């Protein structure tokens, strides 16, 4: 498989015999049908699970001279280092798509000074006798009014900024409609920290970001020495390996209330998510359009009127 694209990023066209695709991710590959004309297995296997589940499809040439034979190919190694090294090998093709010297753009992402570091640690606390999942000890619960609508109408009491910390607390889990404040046009470093034994997959709604570092163990400021500040890919969903960390750089160039969440639906539903409020005091249509006049309003916003477009 020749990898050519990852979530909108043109990549170096490396050849892979197997490719790890984590929850919520997408890849584009090219396969050259240059083998003798017969049937071949195409295998998809789970990774880092017990048991390992496998399913197969058949690649069939129109002039196939024979059916598949023998057992399907075995799954890839269960070692995390193998997958980690593959992830590091996926890099941007800087000769494609005409990279621009825009300081807020993709080509010089590693030359921009970050203005803030946010460390996010997932956990699986028991809260009120029930299994929940959390970020920096906060397990998200929906508010009685959609957060963006409450923010638009400035309805107090629906959510409070600062209800989730910039750093892991190390404390017990608790329930909250968690919202983190952020400034429009800031350039932030976000570190996802995973102390659990399962692979995590994180998505940031409304944004693409640069995956600058992945490694095992505990992240420290010295970990920045291993960052790829030249040709990492830009994407919107990233994996974090067990007992490991993943670091990203992201330009907050999109005003709004944006969801940061686990792509594991069970974990997401049970609280492993929160909202990032990217705010501009200018309140300009250049930065964010107002809510449409026909928007459906509910909760504490019922009966209110939107501003005309």
TrEMBL record:
The species this protein was found in: Stephania japonica
A Pfam family the protein falls into: Cu-oxidase
PANTHER family, per database record: MULTI-COPPER OXIDASE, OS07G0510900 PROTEIN
Plastocyanin-like domain location: 1-63, 144-281
Protein name: Uncharacterized protein
A Gene Ontology molecular function term of the record: oxidoreductase activity
Coiled-coil annotated spans: none
CDD domains: CuRO_3_AAO_like_1
Family indicated by similarity: Belongs to the multicopper oxidase family.
InterPro entries: Cu-oxidase_2nd, Cu-oxidase_C, Cu-oxidase_fam, Cupredoxin, CuRO_3_AO-like
């Amino acid at each position: 498989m020749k990898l050519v694209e990852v979530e909108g990023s043109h990549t170096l066209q490396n050849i892979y015999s197997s490719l790890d695709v984590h929850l919520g991710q997408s890849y584009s590959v090219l396969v050259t049908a240059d083998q003798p004309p017969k049937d071949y297995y195409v295998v998809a296997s789970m990774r880092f699970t017990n048991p390992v589940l496998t399913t197969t499809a058949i690649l069939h040439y129109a002039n196939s001279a024979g059916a598949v034979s023998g057992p399907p190919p075995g799954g890839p190694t269960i070692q995390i280092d193998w997958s980690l090294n593959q992830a590091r090998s996926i890099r941007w093709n800087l000769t494609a798509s005409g990279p621009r010297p825009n300081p807020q753009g993709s080509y010089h992402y590693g030359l921009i000074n970050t203005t803030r570091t946010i460390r996010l640690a997932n956990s699986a606390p028991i809260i009120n006798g029930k299994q929940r999942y959390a970020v920096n000890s906060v397990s998200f619960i929906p508010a009685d009014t959609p957060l963006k609508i409450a923010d638009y109408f400035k309805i107090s009491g629906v959510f409070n900024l600062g209800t989730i910390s910039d750093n892991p607390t190390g404390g017990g889990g608790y329930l909250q409609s968690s919202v983190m404040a952020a400034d429009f046009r800031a350039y932030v470093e976000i570190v996802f920290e995973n102390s659990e034994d399962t692979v995590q997959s994180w998505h940031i709604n409304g944004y693409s970001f640069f995956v600058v570092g992945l490694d095992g163990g505990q992240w420290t400021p010295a970990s920045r020495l291993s960052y790829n500040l030249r040709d990492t890919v830009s994407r919107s969903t990233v994996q974090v390996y067990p007992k490991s960390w993943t670091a990203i750089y992201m330009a907050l160039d999109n005003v709004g209330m944006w969801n940061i969440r686990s792509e594991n639906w069970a974990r997401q539903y049970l609280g492993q998510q929160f909202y990032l409020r990217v705010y501009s005091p200018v309140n300009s249509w250049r930065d964010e359009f107002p809510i449409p006049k026909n928007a459906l309003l509910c909760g504490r916003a019922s009966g209110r009127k939107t501003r005309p477009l």
